[in-house]
Amino acid sequence: MNKIRFLFIGLIICQIVCQGALAGVSESKLPSGRPEEVGMDSKRLALVDELINKAIERHDFPGAVLLVARKGRVVWRQAYGLSQLVPGPSPMKPDLIFDLASITKPVATATSIMILVEKGKLRLWDKVKNYIPEFVPYIEEKGLEGEDARLFHLLTHTSGLPPYVDPKEIISKYGEPCPTETLVKHIAQIRKGSRPGERFVYSCLNYITLAQIIKIVSGEDLAEFSKKNIFQPLGMNSTFFNPPTEIKTRCVPTEVIEGQPLRGVVHDPLARLQGGISGNAGLFSTADDLAIFAQMMLNKGEYRGVRILSPLAVERMTEVFPRLRYAGRGFGWDLDSDYATVRGDLFGYNSYGHSGYTGTSIWIDPETETIVIFLTNRVHPEDRGEIISMRSKVANVVAAAIVKK
């Protein structure tokens, strides 16, 4: 009898714990509300439907998820079109998981760097060669070595590194897969195209290098460090590198390669070479999880009692770095570079965000407390989709729906 009693009590405790865990997951999401409750016009906002549906009809992308939040409430959360065309059509759903591509840079890599700054583990003024001794400087006239690049140059894409390297070249030299440490040593020895701080050249290589520095300093790779210090504390339970097998059915497929769509496998070739964990790409997430992260940023580093960053760290990340104003970049975030078309024409110049090659984007406006998360699978199935102008148009419709600041 006692065994039965203990078993019954155990089942009750297990049920309570499981319910609590599930409640914690659901409670981590931003609450929902009507647009009018936060000073927005429903009819104006609804214009996004026709805009996005027409783009799908033009085959700009198979499908999309749009999430709009203001003043801490989600006021628009819609799925459009199809999540896949190959091997067969499947409807898009709001909770599906997207390959975020370069949104990895601010959300995982730059945030992890700033956490290490706050812990006193590194300085943004540190020279890159302090951590990557092979990192060669710009070569001046007569073969003289120039100034050394610093971590803030990597964060703002002003280090002198080129945009990318040929994956085939990497495979031929080092094999496949290629450890991040090996790839970073190769990147470090690339001839720099300009002096540090002289030119803005958007480069994935900067952030691949930063990921290796995170591992050197913390002892954990970017996936482990960001999970422990960012995503788990925030309750971003659908955000990770290398989605587990049981999760991959929720992942929106990207390009079809050798007859099979990439599903839960990173699209970026250099990230794939590193086993899916890279500073430039590789993060997967949902619109709801990104909304949690964005609200944390709007809250100056805190979300529902959990502090990820200090208010000053958020301010430094989301302002144009004064030493390099021409670049239009903060630490990880884009404010006013040539890539900042995600802002549209109406959000102010203190707003910030980032886009991803696969068709993803996030924009955050502190002035109006607005978040716009627009996720598409424009690279499915043949990497021919068009998204740049659509991001701007969606942002304009959302901004125009704000009728009470």
Search tags:
single chain, 405 residues, alpha+beta, Beta-lactamase, 2 domains, six-stranded antiparallel sheet, three-stranded antiparallel sheet, 13 strands, disordered N terminus
Characterise this structure.
- This protein folds into two domains: 35-104 and 236-400, DD-peptidase/beta-lactamase superfamily (Beta-lactamase), CATH 3.40.710; 110-218, DD-peptidase/beta-lactamase superfamily (Beta-lactamase), CATH 3.40.710.10.
- It has 13 helices and 13 strands.
- The strands form four sheets. It has a six-stranded antiparallel beta sheet, with helices on both faces. A three-stranded antiparallel beta sheet has the order 4-8-5. Strands 6-7 form a two-stranded antiparallel ribbon.
- With 405 residues, it is α+β, with helices and mostly antiparallel strands.
- Residues 1-26 have low confidence and may be disordered.
- The radius of gyration is 22 Å and the shape is globular.
List the helices and strands and how they pair.
Layout lengths: L1 H26 L14 H4 L1 H11 L5 E8 L2 E12 L5 E2 L6 E2 L4 H15 L32 H5 L11 H8 L5 H9 L15 H15 L3 H13 L5 E2 L14 E2 L2 E2 L7 H5 L9 E3 L1 H12 L3 E2 L2 E2 L3 H7 L34 E5 L3 E6 L4 E7 L11 H13 L5
Antiparallel strand pairs: 1-2, 1-13, 2-3, 4-8, 5-8, 6-7, 9-10, 11-12, 12-13
Helix pairs in contact: 3-13, 4-8, 4-9, 7-8
